[in-house]
Amino acid sequence: MAGSTLVYNPVAPPPAETQASRFALDRLAGKTIGFIDNSKPNFNFLVEDLSELLVTKYGVARVVKRRKRSASQGAPDEVMRELTEQCDAVITGSGD
Amino acid sequence: MAKRGRTALTVCSASFIGLGRAQQKALGSPDLPIAVVPHPFGTRSREELREIASSCADEIARLLCESVPRASKSAYEQASIARAQLIEVPDDLEEINKYFIQRRWADGLIIAPPTAERVERMLRHTRRAPEEVVAKIAPGFGAATVELIAINAVMAGCHPEYLPVLIAAAEAVATPQFHLQAIQATTNPAAVWLIVNGPIAKWLEVNSGSNCLGQGAWANATLGRALRLILQNIGGALPGEMDRATQGQPGKYTFCCAENEDASPWEPLHVERGYAVDTSTVTVVGALGTWSMNMTAKQPEEVIAMLGDTMQYPASSDYIYGGAPFVILSPQHANLFHRAGWSKAQVKEKLWEASKIRAGRSRGSEFERMATGRRAELGEIGPDTRVPITERPEHISVIVAGGPGAHSVFVPVSAHTRSVTREVVLSE
């Protein structure tokens, strides 16, 4: 029967948690909601439909929509600044 | 957005939830809400999309207002990065391989056990400290310490003197313009191709000649494989999880060659990029594959036309966004061009012109993506607009590699990536 030996674990540990990341809204009525359209096929339609529903059904005051140049790139800093300043919550997309 | 103190929510198609969750955790925001829509989402009809929006609006409203008790920090936090962990395993090659495969620490081929002795031998080939962080590797943003790079290099079968090449490659892939996040997580078959230039290519016997992208050379096989293990084990891109490739490609096992500088009539890649000819470098390329372009011709114009025709693929990221593809010229083709009096820059200009595509060859959503992606550069795009493969001719990279034969190779690249060259710093 084989004895034992020591080898290294080749995997990097995940980074430590850096900060609190979830901020709940007290309600949706009267709030401003931002969308970052990831520019994947059809996501623009989902943004359109959800915007309408959030306003008509949940009383959201205003929707701000911005579209990325492509899905694989992050939103530009100026878009992030603008949405941070204007919106109470921001919705993004992932997947196909 | 969450890091800027705003409520943030991701709408995710069902097949991508694993990627979304893993990335949130890796970025230190593990509790962000995700609303799920059916996958595939992009092929749904307008009516189906209305139904999807209607059914997920309530969930989005609920999640945006949901308060979640914060998980204890220890649930996510790991011990600070210092030295890698030694683990006790059976002293048997097959058992060790089973142990690694079960934990998804290997690539499917047999690995060499990363024992302390082997890793120590490799670490002698750098002056950098074992615990020094060379780079953070997306999409998991694991810290690539010198030691972890060496461990993965041992597993791949690298000789100890290969380590400096892999340290430089880890630095290169983590450079922002390389866009590693997208290369690692995309559904595209994106692999990272290593090109070695300068004297180290000969010292390490990296094949630049016949079959340089095929099997048979220890350095080519193990260097490319080691980088793949680094991307998987340190970057966290496990197939089917954060690595979302639909099929992937064989180049994801290994993809490495040297430029055939002796057979090239022009300055090599690293000299073009500002390094001295006797400096050793490694270049990383986010390659989507290789396509052989075979033509025996006496007229250089005929070869250029053939290459330009072959490069045209309407739905490629290169045409949609303005890319940075590579062309590997065989020595035969390169010397045909050189005898015509053409510099490498002139060859790039001719390829750029010959590979312009009629925009109308892209259909439906691909045409729209191209029209959006290239608008800033080309203005409004109609069906008859001739769209170049890159924004400028010099964005096509050309190297000379391979042995005798009339085959050159087109290497399209992943969206928005730019290849990166780094000096290989030797220990003495």
Range of strand content of chain B: 15-25%
Count, helices of chain B = 17
N-to-C CA distance of chain A = 51 Å
Widest beta sheet: strand line-up of chain A: 3-2-4
Number of helical segments of chain A? 2
For the CA atoms, what is the radius of gyration of chain A?
A: 20 Å
The radius of gyration of chain B is: 23 Å
- Weakly predicted, low-confidence segments of chain B: 72-79
Major β-sheet annotation of chain A: 3 strands, parallel
Biggest interface goes to: A-B, 58 and 109 residues
Helix content of chain A: 25-40%
Task: Tell me about the largest β-sheet of chain B.
Answer: 4 strands, mixed
Gap between N and C termini of chain B: 46 Å
Using DSSP, what is the number of strands of chain B?
15
| Shape assignment of chain A | elongated
Unreliable spans of chain A: none
Elements of chain A, N to C (H/E): EEHEHE
Architecture overview:
The complex is a heterodimer of chains A (96) and B (428). Chain A has 96 residues and is of the alpha/beta class. Chain A has helices spanning 43-58, 77-86, and strands spanning 4-8, 32-37, 62-67, 89-94. In chain A, strands 3-2-4 form a 3-stranded parallel β-sheet, sandwiched between helices. Chain A is elongated and about 70 Å long. Chain B is of the alpha/beta class and 428 residues long. Chain B has helices at residues 17-26, 46-64, 73-76, 93-102, 116-123, 146-156, 163-173, 180-185, 200-203, 218-233, 269-272, 300-311, 317-322, 331-339, 344-354, 364-373, 375-378; strands at 7-13, 34-37, 86-90, 133-137, 142-145, 191-197, 256-258, 281-287, 291-294, 326-329, 357-358, 386-387, 397-400, 407-411, 420-423. Chain B has a 4-stranded mixed β-sheet. Chain B is flat, with a radius of gyration of 23 Å. Residues 72-79 of chain B have low confidence and may be disordered. At the A-B interface, strand 1, helix 1, helix 2 and strand 4 of A face strand 1, helix 1, helix 2, strand 3 and helix 4 of B. Strand 1 of chain A pairs antiparallel with strand 3 of chain B, so a sheet runs across the interface.
